[in-house]
Amino acid sequence: MNEVIVSLQQKLENMKTLVPTEAATPEQISKYFNENEEIIAGILKAADSQTTATTSELEGIKDAVKELRNLMRKADTEMKPLTYRDVCYNLGKALCAAWNKDEQTLGELKFCPNIRAEKWNNPKDFSWETGKGFVPSKAVLGEPIGNLANNDQYLINPIYEETIMQEAAKQSMMMNLVTHRPMSGPSIFIPERDRGGIELKWLTSYGQKIDATKSNMPTRTELKAYTLAGYVPFFDEFGEDVFVDLGKMFLEDFTEAYGQEFDRQCLIADNDPFKGAMNMAHAEKHATSSADIANLSYLDFRAAELKVEPEERKYCKWFMNETVLNHITNIKDDNNNPIWRKPWEGMPGRLDGYDVIESRLLPQFADIEADTPFAIFMNPKRIIHGNRKGIEIKRFDETTEGLEYGELFMRFRKRDGFLVTRPKKNMVILSTASE
Fold this sequence. Notes:
Elements: H1 3-17, E1 22-23, H2 26-48, H3 55-78, E2 80-81, H4 84-100, H5 103-108, E3 112-113, E4 126-129, E5 133-136, E6 153-155, H6 158-171, E7 179-182, E8 187-192, E9 219-224, E10 226-234, H7 243-267, E11 284-287, H8 298-305, H9 310-313, E12 317-320, H10 322-328, E13 340-341, E14 350-351, E15 354-358, E16 373-378, E17 383-396, H11 400-405, E18 408-420, E19 427-431
Parallel strand pairs: 1-2, 7-17, 11-19, 12-15
Antiparallel strand pairs: 3-6, 4-5, 6-17, 8-9, 10-18, 12-16, 13-14, 14-15, 16-19, 17-18
């Protein structure tokens, strides 16, 4: 029997058990079906390439694909997007189940045991079967999955994870601005090259020698992902009437903390564990004409902007604290026009023609002294966010607070990486002058 065909058959069986009955958004429904059609196309291609496969084996693959597509077609007509309240209810119900080690409820809600230390499980690694519990889908392939009996940590259903991240984006100034890269492993290499990937040569006469040319080879920079952990206070008395409030409390606590930490890593982190834009060694520097922040001039911003090449400058934005922007609203250029154009003047609020993103993480006006960096001019797409899918929850009562005060926590973990790319000639850090 062809081993590849057997593994493809098992993959199709696993996909049939994972056809969802609900989704967070219409976009998620569309994304799910598009991704599965790509996987099915790959399975059919792999099957056709097996020269040793029998006709009956190939026909079996095609029949399994037809059955899966029928299931997907049925799900497509019946699946409805969840409301925010539905997500909160199901999330709260699952949190209670995780706390009480109620695997049946977790399985029905499509949460997944997470029992690997470095490489987390994928929700597709398991299916829930009544009477059997969580069944490892990869056991057929001979891969040990671990001891389920002692497991008390679970991965959130990806449907709810997507809603959580959408809510986190509302708490973050940077999440909708940066470049997101999916990460299937602990690190990936990002190719960085200067503008102009290929060197071009003109030939001006017939038979002219063509000098050797080479492409502008990129620098390979490693983007690493680390695990971020946090603790949400919990309580030990549950009932169905509190599921919505419990799910909402967890969602709001998680998204607020995660959104703020996301911005911190993008903007001001200093090797903890990543470096934010404000601390990039190779970024361009520009000092204002005065050490006193109160003496800011429009020329300070204009001179800083011109340190970025025009091809990049059109994508740049200013990043600063709202108190600094408040001071800037009173600055005028030589024609007595304010350099900050207010939104109610019939055009987007801009500083010298560029969008401004306010962040409370950057220095406040009252705290800015001589030789203090306080604003950044950059294209936020140059910040790469490495996103390793999966949010893990775990009952956590082994704390000092738990022993002394009886306070309990639900621990969550998520894996992310951050990398600021091409800071040279593409990013300017504005600071006050030295005294």
